[in-house]
Amino acid sequence: MSGKVRKEPLFEKITIIGIGLIGSSLARVALARNLARTIVLADRSSIVCQRAKELQLSSSVTQDIAASVEQSDFIVLCVPVGATADVAIEIARHLKAGAIVSDVGSVKGAVVDALQQHLPSSVSIVPAHPVAGTEYSGPDAGFSTLFENRWCILTPPENTLYADVEKVHAFWTACGANVEQMTARHHDLVLAITSHVPHLIAFNIVGTAADLEEVTQSEVIKFSAGGFRDFTRIAASDPTMWRDVFLNNKDAVLEMLGRFNEDLAALQRMIRWDDAEGLFELFTRTRAIRRSIIEQGQETPAPNFGRGPQLPDQ
Amino acid sequence: MSGKVRKEPLFEKITIIGIGLIGSSLARVALARNLARTIVLADRSSIVCQRAKELQLSSSVTQDIAASVEQSDFIVLCVPVGATADVAIEIARHLKAGAIVSDVGSVKGAVVDALQQHLPSSVSIVPAHPVAGTEYSGPDAGFSTLFENRWCILTPPENTLYADVEKVHAFWTACGANVEQMTARHHDLVLAITSHVPHLIAFNIVGTAADLEEVTQSEVIKFSAGGFRDFTRIAASDPTMWRDVFLNNKDAVLEMLGRFNEDLAALQRMIRWDDAEGLFELFTRTRAIRRSIIEQGQETPAPNFGRGPQLPDQ
Predict the structure, then answer these.
(1) What is the ipTM of this complex?
(2) Is residue B248 part of a domain?
(3) pLDDT at position B3
(4) pTM (two decimals)
(5) B308: chain A residues, CB-CB within 8 Å
(6) How many other CB atoms are there within 10 angstroms of residue A117's CB atom?
(7) What are the chain A neighbours of B210 within 8 Å (beta carbons)?
(8) How far out from the chain centre does Cα B150 lie?
(9) b/e burial code for range B127-154 (CB count within 10 A of at least 16 → b)
(10) What is the DSSP string of A264-275?
(11) Which of the residues A91, A103, A296, A298 has the least number of beta carbons within 10 Å of its own beta carbon?
């Protein structure tokens, strides 16, 4: 982290609402890199607040969400997407004029709507989505390098001040992320295929495997190294967060799931009718895509993601 | 690897046919642990044989598959499942009486049929499936610890000599694997859900993402850390191997895919009808399964499979 510590902070006062994996990671990187003079952390849960204090994520941790935003320049909502409206209502009257309100939600259309509906016009709304995370939740799960070389997508409404977008851009760059901008609508479509539908089918196959009668659950677990275990990682992600994602990006998810289902029906037919060439062609094409992802630094080239216990000799 | 080197080899002469990821890993571990006095490696490809010599996987590497099995005690076919019959025909007349013929295929019913049809009754057939691998192929991809703490499933036909099954069991134990026995039919059902269908849906979603018009391929690659990249690993697996798996385990794959599709339709419906409780319940259940897989040593507990570049501070 050294060498990237700012001499002058970007903001006087930042408030992070929700001290989970993302919120606590933001708190860590903001502290480590001196991104604000004051960092206030807020969470409804007394247990989470207590833990944040023990972890020394900030000297200012509170359960009082409304009070936490007072005099704050930059407020980042790190709560499940479905909680956005409630938090917006709670903080609306306490925001100072000119404050920038942002978030980290995996869905943007619904978040923009909720924020625009409930926040005063005196604040600037600059929604953001850092495409980063792990399968773990809570304040202990966060770490300061979570956003390093990951993409963060900003979806500012058209009437947002350019200078405020630039500030949020600078904030995420300082966190180690690459920043991209697009409309909320396009974001929701892109993430439906790169994140939401993958999670959906991972949750689904893990559920299917758990419910079989002919194959016992202990066999599924034992022989999971054949491929199944890869899916269990994202199927272990936070249930509340993902419930909210699917309910708040319904149209794009159902659209992309429709494509997936069409393709799967075609693939199923290839197997039934022994279309060896068709299968080989598809499997060759998919191999190339991973190479591009590795080349662009979004994935490790290490076999099996480099996970233990086995390690190549070379 | 130290401490596990045998004083006396298990076999006088082993022949490994097919020097890919699995064959070359077997060659490495057999050499390192002194599992045979002589290890012969055979592959149809002159390029692969050349590379095996350069890697010093064995002092005996040949393109002559028929000759490679002469006087051999233990022959392991490490070829795509669809090549089993051809290899069996080629080696049949050259096998010595009492030799044990095994394989490492991901499908067992079709392999047993092919071996029983083409091999003389004077040899013993003990099919095996080590549930281990990576997304890479070829002699360079192998490593001697690939089978460490992985399961290897034996599916001996009913008329097999008990002593021969024990020898193959001992071989895989010496390779570091845990050994389990079941019928070929049950194996094919278990692996359909723990390996074949997961690969199928991974291949499928990577294909779907590649074919979209509204979302560019470069966006899919950029934002793949949202979940999609996890699927690209197994979708980068060997195309020939996987084509053969699906064509040779058609019934079980289509059966398990049917279950997957039913469940996915139900999940799709939950999203469409805002069934928040149903989604939450499923996502909570799937989280528990990963914990069991980790507890049983088949997966790493490290966030994001422990892959770089980001690493937790703690």
Answers:
(1) 0.92
(2) yes
(3) 46
(4) 0.93
(5) 300, 306
(6) 10
(7) 285-286, 289
(8) 11
(9) bbbbbbbbbbbbbbbbbbbbbbbbbbbb
(10) HHHHHHHHHTT-
(11) A296
